[in-house]
Amino acid sequence: MPDWKTIRADFPVLHQQVNGKPLVYLDNAATAQKPRSVIEALVNYYERDNSNVHRGLHALSMRATNAYEGARARVAQFINAADPAEIIFTRGTTESINIVARSWSHAHLKPGDVVLTTEMEHHSNLVPWQQAAKASGATLKYVPVLGENAEGGLDLAALDQLLTKDVKLFAFTHISNSLGTINPAKELCRKARAVGAITVIDAAQSIGHMPVDVQDLDCDFLAFSGHKMCGPTGIGVLYGRRALLDKLAPDETGGGMVVTVDYKGATWKPSPERFEAGTPNVADAIALGAACDYLDAVDRAVIAKHSNELGQLAYQKLSEIPGIRLLGPTGERAGLVSFAFKDVHAHDVVTFADEDGLALRGGHHCNQPLMRKLGLTSTTRASFYLYNTAEEIDVLVASMRRIQKFFGSE
Ligand SMILES: *Cc1c(COP(=O)(O)O)cnc(C)c1O
Fold first, then answer.
1. Model confidence over 37-54: pLDDT tens digits?
2. Which residue among 34, 141, 173, 190 is the one 20 to 30 A from 61 at the CA level?
3. Which of 28, 90, 91, 93 to mutate to test the pocket of ligand 1 (most atoms within 8 A of CB)?
4. Ligand 1 mean position to 122 CA, how many Å?
5. Per the confidence metrics, is the pTM higher than 0.90?
C-alpha cells in the first residue's frame, strides 16, 4: 500500500486554506491537481530544452524532439498500445473525439447507417456524433440507462437489440462523469465487433483512475485528456488502431504532416504526423509523460481501489441525509457521487460548501439530455482521487447536513 500522506505532500496546491478552512478538493472529475514532478517537467523543459521539434538539427531541437517522441512512447506503454504511431497528441478528449467524428465519419457513413451511443454521454461524446449523423444522413441511436436514478447502468438487453448490421460505430464512455457508473467496456467492444462496428471509448474519467489496456479492451479508438490524470491542460490523446489511422484522411492540414507539396496539392505522412499539423504542444506532452510515470509509480489498480472506496463511502454516508437523491449505481461505483436536494439548487449547495473549504461542482456536468431524462436540471458532484481521504468525506457530509438544516423542509 502506498503512503497516502506522502502522496498528498506531492501536490503543492492542496496545502492551502480556503475561506479560513483547509481546502478539500473534490472536483477531480472536472480536473485533477498536479504533482510536483509534472510541474517540474514543464519548468525543466522551458528552462533547458525549449525548441521546435522535428525540423531542427541543432542540439536543443534534437533534445526537444527526443523528449516529445519519448512522451509518445511513454503514453503508448501507459495504455499498452502496440505501436507509438497509434498515439496522436491532441488538445484533449473533445478534440480527439471530434477528429474521429469528422475524419472517420466523413469517409465511412452514409444514409441508412447507424451511429450508436448511450444516454449517459458527456456532450463531448454526443454532439460530435449528432453533427456527423447530420452531415452524412446516418441515424443516431442511444442505448438507454436503467432506473429512475440511472442506478441500473446501461440496458444491455436493449443494446443487443440495437446492435444490428447497420451500426457502423459505437461510441461510449468508460466511466460516467455524472453517475459514477463503470461500463463493461471490454464486453461492449466485443458485442460491437460482432456486428462489424468500430468502437470509440471516451476514457476521460477512467484513464487516470484505473488500468486501461487498449489491446485487452480491443477498442478501435480511445480518447482522453491529460488534465484529468494529473497532467497539464491543453494536451490529450487519440489512440487509434494503426490500420485504421493509415487509411484515414487528415482532419487538419498544414506544416509537419506533409511529405511533398507543390502548387497543385500535397501528400500526407503516416500517423501520427498526419494528424498533428503545425507545431505541437511539446511541453505539455512531455509533462503528460511525467504524469504517466507518477501514476504508474503509485499503481492505477491501487488508485482505483482507493478512489472507488471513497465513492462508495460517500454514497453510503450521503444517503443517510434526509431529502437527498443520489444518482448512479448503489453498489460498486467509480470515485464520484452525484446528488440533488429536493429543495436546494446545486449552485447554492456548491456556494455554501465553498464556505467550508470544499471544492464541489454543481450543474448539468455536460450531460443535459441525461439530466432531463432523470427529471433534473442539475446535480451536485463530489469526485475523488488518490490524494483524497475518508476524513475529507466527513467534511463533505457535515457540510451537506448543514445545508440541509439551513434550507431543508426536514
Ligand atoms: C471531461 C470529460 C470530457 C471532456 O474532456 P475535455 O478535457 O474537456 O476535452 C469528455 N468526456 C468525459 C466523460 C469527461 O469527463
1. 999 999 999 999 999 998
2. 34
3. 93
4. 7
5. yes
Radius of gyration of the chain (CA): 22
Give the residue, out of 174, 224, 366, 383, with the most ligand 1 atoms within 8 A of its beta carbon, to mutate for a pocket test.
Answer: 366
Sign (positive or negative) of CA dihedral 238, 79, 154, 379: negative
Q: Measure the CA–CA gap between 177 and 339, rounded to whole angstroms.
A: 12
**All three cell numbers of 73:** 512512447
DSSP notation for 6-42: HHHHT-GGGS-EETTEE-EE-BTTT-----HHHHHHH
Q: How far apart are CA 304 and CA 360, in angstroms?
A: 20
Tell me the per-residue pLDDT of 276-311, one tens digit each, with 9 for 90 and over: 999 999 999 999 999 999 999 999 999 999 999 999
Task: Select 40-296's CATH number: 3.90.660.10, 3.40.640.10, 3.30.1330.10, 3.40.720.10.
Answer: 3.40.640.10
